[in-house]
User: Fold this.
Amino acid sequence: MMRTRLLVICVLALAGCSAVPEITGTPRLQARLAGPTDITLTWQAGDTGHVVEFATDPAGPWTILAFAPPGQTSYEHQELIPHTRFHYRLRPYGGPTSNAVEVSLPPGELDPGADHAWADPQVIRTGPVTTGPRGTPGGLRATIVHANGIRFTWTDHASDEEGYLLESGERVLALLDPDVNAFGIVTLPEEKRASYRVRALYYGPPSNLATQTTGADPSSARGSAQDLGDLLGENRMPAASIRAEPVTTQMNRSVMGSQTGSEGRAL
Assistant:
């Protein structure tokens, strides 16, 4: 069996532990139709990031769409199921972060047949650890497994975290369960150098519910227009003799909706 040589990266420790920002109130969320099956969410920027979630039942279960950084103020939810009611909410999130580690991967391409079992989330206990409310994760280490693989380990000092986030800059790369303190990622070939950290995750109170109902499938409108053209050709009838206004109007609304942009940046 071939053994992969593990190269341990020196940790770039930041001065002390990062301060824990207060998880402030959630801004009011608004939802509007940007097209028959596209919904745009907007809110005011705050001091913390926000988890964007949706459900088809106001009681849940809720599905995470994105972790939006503090500067993001909109999100585009596109190509949804027609004639369906969608409910949305925001939850502010925060928590103490570990030291950062700078990773420089060696040259090389990804081996599609490589075993990635080492990347599975794990809870590793090696001895007594001091824990407490809002404890800061400590001792983050990054180990290069191969040219595109990095395994992270850290010490879980929190007793009440709601999970852990692996972050690179403002991007959330992974959401992990509470107590996890080992996890790996496989990067893209162009992602050879980056800085990483882990965050003990805490949520604030959810926002109001914003609700919208999608319309008809735009592709059905295009199909109807094609069928209409076939009908005109087969029956050799003048175009003016068949009223096609509803189809044309619906297609125009679909095109206008698809051109609506987002003010924010999706992660």
Observations:
- The chain has two domains: 1-215, 218-258.
